Structures
1.
Amino acid sequence: MALVLATTTPGEAELFASLQGEGASLGRPSVFVRLSRCNLACRWCDTAYTWRFSGDNRPHRDDIAFERTANQITADEGDIATRILAFGVPRLVVTGGEPLLQAPALARMIAAVRAGNEAMHIEIETNGSVAPTPALDALIDQYNVSPKLAHSGNPADLALIPERLAAWAADPRAYFKFVIATPDDLTQVRELVATYGIVPERLFVMPEGTDSATLRERSRWLAQAAIDAGWRVTDRLHIHLYGDTRGT
Ligand SMILES: C[S@@+](CC[C@H](N)C(=O)[O-])C[C@H]1O[C@@H](n2cnc3c(N)ncnc32)[C@H](O)[C@@H]1O
Ligand SMILES: Nc1nc2[nH]cc(C(=O)O)c2c(=O)[nH]1
Ligand code: SF4
Ligand SMILES: [Mg+2]
């Protein structure tokens, strides 16, 4: 087994140092590694190249054109760990695609990172619909959980798994990060908060958008909604700094 990663350019794994642009660790220097493949298909996914492959059958998404090129690279877990450690940066953010789809290989990769740097802080970005394996879970400091609301275009029975949402809500390492495009989307957030008892300290709302103007416009009404509800707002710092660019 090996890890299947996304690529920046063909043959080049998406592995880079940047600032964490979103959520509880916003602004912290981090190494990012982006895994390929996803179990969902969000309408506005900013990394559709990790899953929108030719021949990929997603009955609930008949409105998207699938790409012909795979944008994937397979790599040895130990080699990826060595490359991560070489940055000398004390935080690792594992993202995708949906990283928890590759939990066994990911656990081996992270174990090798830990062996090289016991103090490394390790975060996983996840859509929250997949359970980590116990071996992986034991190695993780923080989960950034972004459950997908109705406006993502995913059916709720695929995206919102009750026992998973309950488990994340009860895990002090898990920060929720809801992507919001219109004020109507907030109604579903309120419902999930009530159903699962999500605490406001670990709940972010984040504007949907891949350009600064859109993020700014949506942040204005999002800020007032967060003030009213006691939630936190997160921007997308990397978009302001680098635009919607692979490997940033
Ligand atoms: C590309 S996803 C990868 C991790 C995982 N699949 C997930 O959805 O959380 C990384 C983060 O970007 C967010 N995201 C993706 N497209 C976005 C967009 N157009 N606007 C705002 N956030 C977006 C996701 O909700 C998630 O928090
Ligand atoms: N700088 C930066 N911060 C991020 N935080 C979460 C990201 C992601 O795509 O998961 C991301 C990303 O792609 N870039
Ligand atoms: S769950 Fe994440 S990677 Fe998958 S389609 Fe949605 S935003 Fe993209
Ligand atoms: Mg991103």
2.
Amino acid sequence: MAATLAKVPACVLKSGILASLRFNSVAKCSSQRAYSMATLPFLCSVFREKSSIRQRPLDLLVRARTALGNWKMDMRQQSNYAYRGAVSTKNALDEQKHDSEEETSQETLRHDINDNDMVSVVPRADIKGKCVIANTNIKAGTHLFTLYGDKQRQPTLYTIQVASHAHIHPEGKLIFVNHSCSPNTQFQFSPSWDLYAARDILPGEELTFDYTTTEWQMAQPFQCSCCSTKCIHKVQGFYFLNADQKAERDGVLSPVIKKQLKEQTASE
Ligand SMILES: C[S@@+](CC[C@H](N)C(=O)[O-])C[C@H]1O[C@@H](n2cnc3c(N)ncnc32)[C@H](O)[C@@H]1O
């Protein structure tokens, strides 16, 4: 399939992707979406004469790239929570350094690298908000953001939990990174909290991470629109996941979630 797509002229491919997205926009579930992506080459030729994607809303382009990225990932059969292990070395360090809850030092987190040129913040109409997209090919393991910002006791829809009662309101573009149940980025927690590409990311593809790997109980739960086959539908924090969903996230959890999980298990 990838080889076939490679032979399709770029303009035809773009129009085909738009057509596929029209179907995607009415598709309610991942199987319909998968069908849409499987018929992409056919739709490419049907929509050969359609107008340039530049005339379309940027939102469609973002979704096209994201869908294509997800499809490529599926093709690689990365079904077992694919992003785990992309940058696993630091997790070993995390095990050693975060056995006890350790509040993240604001000073050590302060870097100027969050406004990197690899990504842009753009509107995303379907959630009436913004999102972060890649401006270029981003290789798996690439450093994207360092978490820094004001620390507060109460969580909000924007904060990232760094201790039981400490939440950082991220500065920079990181604040606009949305959730996905099959994310293409993940946090590493040592020495600072940094977001890395968990797989190769295409230009125009939306960057996402799994909020349940950092949030125990979220301030504002929401209905997930990621359409992943692994979608948990209602995103409300790690605490609310079922046993299988919790097990799938083993290895990518923040030290805070690990600690709270340990405490919960001990008290049961
Ligand atoms: C940290 S903000 C992310 C930026 C946000 N999209 C914005 O424009 O302000 C988190 C909020 O974005 C929305 N969001 C993030 N991921 C989502 C998803 N997968 N499905 C639906 N809404 C999502 C939810 O409203 C959530 O409370």
